[in-house]
Amino acid sequence: MKNLLKPVIVLTVIAFVCTAALAGVNMLTKDVIAAAAAEKTATTMRELFPNEQGFEKVEVKEELLKKHGVSAVSKASSGAGFIYEVAPSGYGGEIAMMVAFSNEGEILGVKVLSHEETNGIGTRVVESEDFLNQFKGKDAATEAGIDAVSGATISSTAVVSGINSACNLYAELSDGR
To answer: What does the CA dihedral 124, 94, 39, 99 come to, rounded to 10 degrees?
Structure first.
């Protein structure tokens, strides 16, 4: 019995030390990771609105955001348009992306922030400028005319679904303006 207890105690101590080390590293790096994510978001917003100096969060009721699957809405400081952040579920997980709209409801661009899609298959959707650019110029009320990527149907459908979610919320908010 004594021979059995010693390895259990040693493994418990090792697990505790490793857990404490991971918690310490997490505490040291969480601010850096959050700052990097915020910078990536700001950079992507500037790519969608190249001449824009800043963006302001738009206050939208939480129930409305959840209803449409949108996580945030931002407005260009100059009033040039809006950016909707969505994260539909793809094949490998969430596909975090931004959809930019003009004030007239035209899609100005779509950018993927992060994804976990299968390399070589789903990545053909989320990393393809050709696929993402086919949404430019579409009206928020229009859903037709999108070509899916063969072999990556789930990823294609997820991106289209996310864009449609942003379009639906845009249309609902525009009615109230």
So the answer is: 70
* C-alpha–C-alpha distance, residues 157 and 90, integer Å: 8
- Give the residue from 77, 91, 95, 81 showing the smallest Cα distance to 165: 95
Separation of alpha carbons 170 and 64, rounded Å: 11
Instruction: Find how far residue 8's CA is from the centre of its chain.
Output: 43
CA distance 157 to 143: 12
Tell me: the pLDDT tens digits for 2-50? 678 888 899 999 999 999 999 999 999 989 888 888 888 888 899 999 8
> What pLDDT band is residue 87 in, cutting at 50, 70 and 90?
very high
DSSP annotation of 52 reads -
DSSP-assigned letters across all residues of 59-128: P--HHHHHHHTEEEEEEETTSSEEEEEE--B-SSSB-EEEEEEETTSBEEEEEEEE--PPTTTTHHHHT-
Compute the residue count for the chain.
177
142-167 residue pLDDT tens: 655 667 777 788 888 899 899 999 99
